Amino acid sequence: MNEFLNMGGYAVYVWSSFGVFFVAMFIDFFGLRSKEKIIKRNIKSMIKRKTNSK
Amino acid sequence: MKKQRTNAIVTLYHKLGSPPSFYRISGYFLKWLLLISIALTCWGLYDGLVLAPADYQQGDSFRIIYVHVPAAWMSMFIYAVMGIAAIIAIIWRMKVAEAVMIASAPIGAWFTFLALVTGSLWGKPMWGTWWEWDARMTSELILLFLYIGIMATYGAFSEDARKAARMAALVAVVGLVNLPIIHFSVKWWSSIHQGTTVSLTGESHITWEMLRPLLYMAFATKFYYGYSMLKRARLYLLETESQKKWAHTVITENK
Fold first, then answer.
1. Who among A7, A27, A46 is closest to B60 (CB)?
2. Closest Cα in chain A, distance from residue B225 (Å)
3. What secondary structure does DSSP assign to B206-221, as a single string?
4. B10 in any annotated domain
5. Is B63's Cβ below 8 Å from some Cβ in A?
6. Residues of chain B positioned with their CB less than 8 A from the CB of A39
7. Is residue B15 situated within a structural domain?
8. For chain A, how many structural domains are there in total?
9. What are B55's strand-pairing partners?
């Protein structure tokens, strides 16, 4: 296990490469989900305003 | 028989060209694209970090290839998709093409950023430098600026989404010239970056045990792009058509 984590002495470079890759993917994924929530909520409140003013 | 077939294709084209149908049809794919992407990533990580043998020259540092190369491929692939969508958006004023183009930019920028950062993390132990102003790296950095430029152009005309999309499309089309420059940069100029190892048309200079995880990761990133881009494109259509009835139906029925 230690040998695996050590990556033949290149641990810093290998693990930070994989780390930054997955951090970026997670930011994209969760950012997109919260964007979806905001947009849908905005449209919902817009529809509500419209039906109320009628 | 033949006539019917062409009709089906034409119908599909028109359907995908209309925002409500695009929204509905793309909805069926989202979950699967994401699941396939996650499965391929898990498999690729295990294969690449555990099963693949260490390189005889680069040792274990070569494993960075499994994030660096898929990211670099995607940075160019996504730009090509975006460029084609931009051309369609300019010529036929197709709204779905605008959505695909704008939706591709953020994820394309992420992959370009990752190609640069992981390349830097690979360059330090192998070349002894984080960064070199050579043709491959400089043209990839320009690609990142193009992605950012497209997003900024779109953001600058936020009061008129259609005009904003057309302006962004112009930037995207002009930037297409950068793609062959990136691809051939290692041939045209003497570069610190190594030449092509994996080729679709010619011979690949890599053993199957090392290539296999790379292919898993390459497909994983393709499927994730499919997910992220379609989801963004759907939100783009929903937002820009929020005054229309189909958008209201989608929201009130919570689809």
1. A7
2. 10
3. S-HHHHHHHHHHHHHH
4. no
5. yes
6. 235, 238-239
7. no
8. 1
9. B59
Long-range Cβ contact pairs of B161-164 (< 8 A, separation 24 or more): B161/B240, B162/B95, B162/B98, B162/B240
- Among the partner residues A9, A21, A44, nearest to B251 by beta-carbon distance: A44
Report the number of distinct structural domains present in chain B.
Answer: 1
CB atoms within 10 A of CB B138: 17
Of the candidates B90, B88, B83, which has an alpha carbon nearest to the alpha carbon of residue B105? B83
Containing structural domain, residue B39: 29-252
Q: Tell me the residue type at B14.
A: H
Per-residue pLDDT tens digits of chain B, which is 255 residues long? 555 667 777 777 777 789 999 999 999 999 999 999 999 999 999 999 999 888 888 888 899 999 999 999 999 999 999 999 999 999 998 999 999 999 999 999 999 999 999 999 999 898 888 888 888 999 999 999 999 999 999 999 988 888 999 999 999 999 999 999 999 888 888 777 887 777 766 667 788 888 999 999 999 999 999 999 999 999 999 999 988 999 999 998 875
Could you list the residue range(s) of the whole structural domain that residue A16 is in?
2-53
**Chain-centroid distance, C-alpha B30:** 16
Above 0.85 for ipTM, yes or no?
yes
Q: How far is A39 from chain B (nearest CA, A)?
A: 7
Q: Which residues of A touch B113 (CB under 8 A)?
A: 24
